[in-house]
Amino acid sequence: MKKMTIRLEDYVYDRLFLFSKEEEISINKIVGLILKKEIDKPKEINALDSINNRLEEIQNKLTNISKRQQFHFKLSLQHFVNQGYVGNADPKKDKCYQEMKENNIDKFNE
Question: In this structure, which of 42, 58, 62, 94 has its CB flanked by the most CB atoms within 10 Å?
Answer without folding.
Answer: 94
